[in-house]
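Feature request, filed as a ticket because there's no other form

It would be nice if the structure record came with a short human-readable summary line next to the C-alpha cells. Right now we just get the raw output. Example of a typical job, pasted below so the devs can see what we mean:
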Amino acid sequence: MKKILLISILLFTSLLFCAEKTTLEGNLITNGKKWFVKNENGFYILNLAPNEWFEDNEIELKADKKIKAIGDLKDKELFVTVLFIDNEICVIRDGQGKPLWTPQVEYTHKVDKSKCIGCALCVKACPVNAITMYKGKAVIDADKCINCKICVTGNDKFLGCPTSAISMVERTD
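Raw output as currently delivered:
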C-alpha cells in the first residue's frame, strides 16, 4: 500500500511539472547500450534509469515496443521523467528531474604524467593488463580497468605506485 501511495504521489508531482516537458511517442530501439525512440521526426536518445532499476521493478524494455516518454529534451536526448510502456506508467525522475534511483558512480584510474617516472611497476602488477606504457609514461585503459586499486594501493607483491602518480577519478564516458 505504501508503494502504491508513493508511486501515486510521485506520478502526480511529476505530471504537474510535465506541462513544460517534451512528449515523444514511437518505437523503442536499442543498440545494445543505449535506448532510443524512433518516430516520424527521427531518432531520439532516451536517458533512462539503469537497466538494473527496470529489472528490480519488473519492467521489461524490449525493442520495437510502442512507448510514450515525457521529459526534458536537450539536443536529441530526452531525460525521461515518465515512461508509458505496455499500459504501465514508470516514473523515473521527480518533477525537477532528479533520478528516483541511486546513481551508480563509476570510477577508473588516472595517471598524473608529471609524477609518473616510467618505472612500469604498475604495468607488471595489473591483473587485467589495463596499463601500458606510452612515451615512457603509464596509460590506463578505462574499458579494461576493473578498479582493483592494485596500481594505487598495491597487493602482497607490489606496494602501489612509488610516486603516487595514479589516482581514482569518476568515469565520465
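Something like this underneath would help us a lot:
The chain has two domains: 2-91, 107-170.
Helices lie at 2-17, 51-56, 121-125, 150-153.
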